[in-house]
Specification:
Low-confidence stretches: 1-9
Strand content: 5-15%
GO biological process, one term: glucan biosynthetic process
Shape: globular
Distance between the termini: 36 Å
EC number: 2.4.1.-
Mean pLDDT: 87
InterPro entries: Glucans_biosynth_gluTrFase_H (IPR023725), Glyco_trans_2-like (IPR001173), Glycosyltr_2/OpgH_subfam (IPR050321), Nucleotide-diphossugar_trans (IPR029044)
Strand order of the largest sheet: 5-4-3-6-10-8-11
Largest sheet: 7 strands, mixed
Oligomer: single chain
Number of helices: 29
Pathway: Glycan metabolism; osmoregulated periplasmic glucan (OPG) biosynthesis
Main location: membrane
CATH class of one domain: Alpha Beta
C-alpha cells in the first residue's frame, strides 16, 4: 500500500467512535433493535432493509405492429406470451353482465351522438354540404361522443349510489369484520423522489399508527423506496427514517432503500422492490408520497384479496384533502362531490376490467411479478423508451393474464392530495399527456381485453379532446369568416339542379347548446342531490353546498379554455418530440407569482384579445357565443394568481364554501398527518453540508452509504483521493449534485472529508 493510501486508510478506533456517536445522537434503540452492523471491512453500517431474497421479473418485449406480428407468425418466429400459455378458468358471471352493460353503453352513446350530430347539421348554413362544414361535423361528433360517455358514466354511478351497492361490487363479496387470514403478508411500498420529507414521513407515520390501532400491524411491512438524487433530500430522509422508527418502534417493520441507479422511474423502483423482496409477500399496497390510508381500509383490502383469488388488483377510491389554496379547495370539493358518481359509474360499466391509478391500491404480487414487468417501447422519438404512465399498462397486462382489476369505489379510508395551483396541475398533466400518448402504441398489442384497449383510447382522448375542441372553435370562426367575407354559394356540387340557400336556425342552435349543457352539468346537479339525500352536514349544510357547486361550475367554465390551450400545446409538443420535465409535484401550498403568471399565460391573453377583435369585426352577434371562451382567456392571469392564494382558500372555508367532510370532521389519520407535518416542518432539517461537518449527521450518512468497496485496491483508492482533493479545493458548497451524491454514496470519502473539514474548525474553536 502506498503512503497516500495508508494516510487515507480508516484510522484505528474510528468505527468505535462512529458507533458511539450514532448511539449518543440517535438513541440506544439503534443497538437494541440490532440496526447497527459492521461490513466486511469493519466499517459501521445501518441495516435499513431486510435481507434480499430475489425473484425473477423479466419483461416481455413489445411487438406493437400487427403486421410485424403476422409476418413473424408466418415465419414461425412469433412465440406465445406467458399470458397466452396459461389455462383459462371458466368465465365468472360478472363477465357476462359486464359485456351486456358495455353494449348498452355503446348503443346509448352512439345513438345520442347521432341525434346531436343531425341537429348540428341542421344548424350549419349549408347543412353539411361544404368541406369546412363536414370537418366541423366530424369534430363535433367526436367531442359529443366523449361528453356523452361521461354523462352515462355519471348517470349510472348516481343510480348505483342511490340504490345501494351493486350485486357485482367487489366490496359485497365479504361481510364486514372478517379478519385477515393467518400467514398473509402485505408490503406497503411508497416510492418517493425528491419529495417534501416532512410531509412524506408525517403521512407514513399516521398510516402506520392507524394500522397498529386496527390490530393488524403484524400483517404489514412498510417500505420507503427512494429515488431521490438531491443531496439535501437524501440526508433528510436518513434522519427522518431513524426518528420515525424510534418514535413508533418500527425498526424491523419500516424499511428504507435509496437506489443508486434510477431506472424507469417509479415503475422501475417498484420492479426493483419486487425483484428483491416481492417473493416474501402475498400482496403489495402502492402508496404515493402524499397518500394516507387508514388501518381499517388496508385491512379490508387484504380481506377482499383473500376472498377473491381471481382478483389481481383492487383499486380504492382516494379522497382529496389537505391543501388550503383556493384552487386546491375548489378541486377537492369537485372530486369529493362529483368524483363518487364517476368512480361508481366506471365500476358499473367495467366491473373486473377496471382502472388502476398507480397508488392507494392492493396488488397480488405473484401475477404482478410474472406478467407486469414493463419493457421499453421500441423505436426512437418521444413515443419510445421507458413507459411513463405505467399504471394503465400494468392493469391491462394483469387482465390479459386472466386476473381481475376492480375498483372498490365504496371503501372509505383512502386519501391523497391535489396540486395547490393551476400551473402545478398543468405540469403534472404534461407528464400524463406524454404517458397516455405513448400508451396508445399498445392499443393493438395481442391479447389485451377490449375494455383496456378502450382505457388506452380514453386516456388519449382526455388530452386529444383539447386540440380537437380548439380546432372545432377555429373552424367555426373560419366558417363565420367565409360567410361574412365571401359571396354565398348556391350551387356547391356539379350538375346540381336546384340551389341550396344558406339557412341559419338559431332556435336549433340554442336547443343543441342547451342539450350539451345538460350533459355537462346534470352530473353535478345529481351529485348535489345525492349529497342532500345522504346528508350535507359535512359540506357546511345544503345551502352552502349549493352555492359551492354554482361557484365551482363558474370556476370550471373559466378554467376550461385555459386548460384547452395548454393541453393542445402538450399534445403538439409530444408529437414534435419536445422534452418533458419530470419533477416531483408540489406538496406544499405554493402560490403563483404574478411574474410567473404573465410568463405562462401572456400569450393566451393576447390570443383572447385578437380572437375577440376578429369575431367582433366579422359579426358582433357571434360574440355572445364566444363569451365563455374569451372571458376565460382575458382573465387567465389574475385567475391563475388569485386562485393560488392560501388566504382566499382559508377565507372560503371559514365562510362555509367548498367544505368537504374530510376537513369539517377530519378522520384521525388526516388530523395526525397535519399535526406531524407541522412538527416536522418546525424542526430544523440537516442538509448536505451537515453530512460533511456535523459529527452526528456525518456518522449517520456514512452508515447509510452504499458504495462499500473494500479498501486497499489501488484504482479505488486513487479515485477516492482525487475526489477528496477536488472537494477540498473546490469547496463542497459549490459542488454539483452528481458529485455530492458520489460523496454520500462512499463512506470512506465522507470520513476523509469530514476529518479535513473538522480539524480546522476544532482548532478555531480551541483558539
Amino acid at each position: 500500500m502506498s503512503a497516500a493510501i495508508e494516510e487515507n486508510a480508516p484510522r484505528a478506533g474510528e468505527a468505535e467512535t462512529q458507533e458511539r456517536t450514532l448511539l449518543e445522537a440517535y438513541g440506544p434503540e439503534l443497538d437494541e433493535y440490532g440496526v447497527v452492523h459492521r461490513d466486511e471491512a469493519g466499517r459501521v453500517c445501518i441495516q435499513t432493509a431486510p435481507a434480499i431474497k430475489r425473484s425473477s421479473m423479466v419483461p416481455e418485449p413489445w411487438v406493437t405492429n400487427p403486421f410485424v406480428r403476422g409476418w413473424r407468425r408466418v415465419q414461425g418466429q412469433m412465440h406465445k406470451s406467458r399470458a397466452e400459455r396459461l389455462a383459462r378458468p371458466p368465465e365468472p358471471r360478472w363477465k357476462i353482465a359486464g359485456r351486456l352493460r358495455r353494449l348498452t353503453l355503446l348503443v346509448a352513446v352512439v345513438a345520442q351522438t347521432a341525434v346531436a350530430t343531425w341537429y348540428m347539421k341542421a344548424v350549419l348554413p349549408y347543412q353539411g354540404g361544404q368541406i369546412l362544414e363536414i370537418a366541423i361535423l366530424l369534430l363535433f361528433a367526436l367531442l359529443f361522443c366523449w361528453v356523452s360517455a361521461g354523462f352515462w358514466t355519471a348517470l349510472m354511478g348516481f343510480l348505483q349510489l342511490l340504490m345501494g351497492r351493486d350485486r357485482y361490487s367487489i366490496s359485497a363479496t365479504v361481510a364486514e369484520g372478517v379478519p385477515i387470514s393467518a400467514g398473509t403478508r402485505t408490503a406497503l411500498v411508497m416510492p418517493i423522489c425528491n419529495e417534501d420529507v416532512g410531509r412524506v414521513f408525517a403521512g407514513l407515520r399516521a398510516t402506520y399508527e392507524s394500522v397498529a390501532r386496527a390490530g393488524v400491524l403484524d400483517k404489514f411491512d412498510f417500505f420507503i423506496l427512494s429515488d431521490s438524487y438531491k443531496p439535501d433530500n437524501c440526508v433528510q430522509e436518513q434522519r427522518a427514517w431513524v426518528e420515525l422508527c424510534k418514535t413508533v418502534e418500527g425498526f424491523g417493520r419500516i424499511h428504507y432503500r435509496r437506489r443508486r441507479r434510477r431506472v424507469k422511474r417509479k415503475s422501475g423502483n417498484i420492479d426493483d422492490f419486487c425483484r428483491r423482496w416481492g417473493g416474501e409477500y402475498d400482496y403489495m399496497v402502492v402508496l404515493d408520497a402524499d397518500s394516507v390510508m387508514s388501518g381499517e381500509c388496508l385491512k379490508r383490502l387484504v380481506v377482499l384479496m383473500n376472498a377473491n383469488p381471481e382478483a389481481g388488483i383492487i383499486q380504492s377510491a382516494p379522497r382529496a384533502s389537505g391543501m388550503d389554496s383556493l384552487y386546491a379547495r375548489v378541486q377537492q370539493f369537485a372530486t369529493r362531490v362529483y368524483g363518487p358518481l364517476f368512480t361508481a359509474g366506471l365500476h358499473f360499466w367495467q366491473l373486473g376490467e377496471s382502472h388502476y391509478w398507480g397508488h392507494n391500491a392492493i396488488i397480488r404480487l405473484e401475477p404482478f411479478i410474472q406478467h407486469c414487468a414493463l419493457a421499453p417501447l421500441p423505436g426512437k422519438g418521444s413515443f419510445a423508451g421507458a413507459i411513463l404512465s405505467h399504471d394503465f399498462v400494468e392493469a391491462a397486462l394483469m387482465r390479459r393474464a386472466g386476473w381481475g382489476v376492480w375498483i372498490a369505489y365504496d371503501l372509505p379510508g383512502s386519501y391523497e392530495e391535489l396540486p395547490p395551483n393551476l400551473l402545478d396541475e398543468l405540469q403534472r398533466d404534461q407528464r400524463w399527456c406524454q404517458g397516455n400518448l405513448m400508451n396508445f402504441r399498445l392499443f393493438l398489442i395481442k391479447g389485451l381485453h377490449p375494455v383496456h384497449r378502450a382505457v388506452f383510447l380514453t386516456g388519449v382522448m382526455s388530452y386529444l379532446s383539447a386540440p380537437l375542441w380548439f380546432l372545432f372553435l377555429a373552424l367555426s370562426t373560419a366558417l363565420l369568416a367565409v360567410h361574412t367575407l365571401t359571396e354565398p354559394q348556391y350551387f356547391v356540387t356539379p350538375h346540381q339542379l336546384f340551389p341550396i340557400w344558406p339557412q341559419w336556425h338559431p332556435e336549433e342552435a340554442i336547443a343543441l347548446f342547451s342539450t350539451t349543457a345538460v350533459l355537462l352539468f346534470l352530473p353535478k346537479i345529481l351529485s348535489v342531490l345525492l349529497v342532500w339525500v345522504k346528508g350535507a352536514r359535512g359540506y357546511a349544510g345544503s345551502g352552502k353546498l349549493l352555492w359551492s357547486m354554482l361557484l365551482e361550475v363558474l370556476f370550471s367554465m373559466l378554467l376550461a379554455p385555459i386548460r384547452m390551450l395548454f393541453h393542445t400545446r402538450f399534445v403538439v409538443a409530444a408529437f414534435l418530440g419536445w422534452k418533458v420535465q419530470w419533477k416531483s409535484p408540489a406538496r406544499a401550498n405554493n402560490e403563483t407569482p404574478w411574474r410567473e403568471a404573465f410568463r405562462r399565460h401572456g400569450l393566451q391573453t393576447l390570443l383572447g384579445v385578437c380572437w375577440g377583435l376578429l369575431v367582433a369585426w366579422l359579426n358582433p352577434n357571434f360574440l355572445w357565443w364566444m363569451i365563455p371562451i374569451l372571458a376565460s382567456l382575458l382573465l387567465a392571469i389574475p385567475l391563475s394568481v388569485m386562485s393560488s392564494r392560501v388566504s382566499l382558500g382559508r377565507g372560503a372555508f371559514d365562510d362555509g364554501l367548498f367544505c368537504i367532510p374530510e376537513e369539517t370532521s377530519p378522520p384521525r389519520e388526516l388530523h395526525d398527518t397535519a399535526r406531524y407535518n407541522e412538527e416536522n416542518q418546525a424542526r430544523s432539517a440537516p442538509g448536505f453540508m451537515d453530512a460533511l461537518t456535523d459529527p452526528a449527521v456525518n456518522a449517520l450518512a456514512r452508515a447509510f452509504a452504499t458504495g462499500r468497496h473494500l479498501p486497499g485496491h489501488p484504482l479505488i483508492e486513487t479515485a477516492r483521493t482525487q475526489l477528496v482533493d477536488e472537494v477540498l479545493e473546490t469547496h463542497p458548497e459549490r459542488l454539483p449534485d452528481p458529485k455530492r451524491m458520489r460523496l454520500l454514496d462512499d463512506p470512506e470519502v465522507l470520513a476523509r472529508v469530514h476529518r479535513a473539514l473538522a480539524q480546522p474548525a476544532a482548532q478555531a474553536r480551541a483558539a
